[in-house]
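Predict structure. Chain length: 292.
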Amino acid sequence: MAYNPLSEAEKIFILHGVQDDFRNDGRSRNDFRPMEFQTNVIASASGSARFCIANSDILVGIKPEIDIPSPNKPNEGKIEFLVDCSANALLDFEGRGGEELASEITNCLKLTYSSPYAFDLKSLCILPRHQCWKLYIDILILQCAGNLYDAISLAVKCALYNLRIPRVTSALLDGGNVDLVLSDDPSDCDRINAESLPILMTVCKIGDYCIVDPSIDEENCSTSSAVIGVSGNKITTIKTISGGSFHADTLNNSIDLTISTAKYLNDKLMVSLKQEERQMESKNIQKCSFLN
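Prediction complete.
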């Protein structure tokens, strides 16, 4: 959570707005700010996306590499997250200021994607106990305007939808050595089923009410905040991100709110991702990058 000093009058204004279900930017308690995304933005990555919620700007790139499965999970692949905060994103991120936040977000993503409801790691296995795919997911926070957990989870979901993994046409075990043959056709690839990939939802309690998609000012007015991972109608993880606590009834109401909101958001996102993909294919647009 970024620190943004507010006067008592500003805090009271935000509190009264939440109570009246009319926040300082005109939203209700259950509304998200405008979102934009673009996939296929990094030419050197196998899957990439840039995602914005208001002025929160996230860039994600994914590279798959062949690895050896873990001994305790011989028939599963691996996934690794790396979060980096640009010093230009927020003054709090200068020097080592963003390392703690990046570590917290990384651990939350690892916990969320380790849930069996979130991601089927078995789909990344090539040859049990011998070879599997390991996905390196690099996340760069370009700009912060609050609600980083939600923005990052949505950016990762878009990048995983865009991911193309080379198809293994042959996997043979010869004398303890694995011989893999990958398809030479760039269009012959495997895709990730992104439909049930988790979405992180941040819920902040301000006064007697909870809100979603908090801005930086609202985050600093909240008495307690929690990040709830949702995959379909399943909860993958719950993490508090402030010093406060939730009453049991408030937490149950927050879970109900996040499940319904995440389902609506996921449906809209998947429709938009498929629509963008059809437009790219119909125009035969080659992969390009604003980083080139």
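Summary: The radius of gyration is 20 Å.
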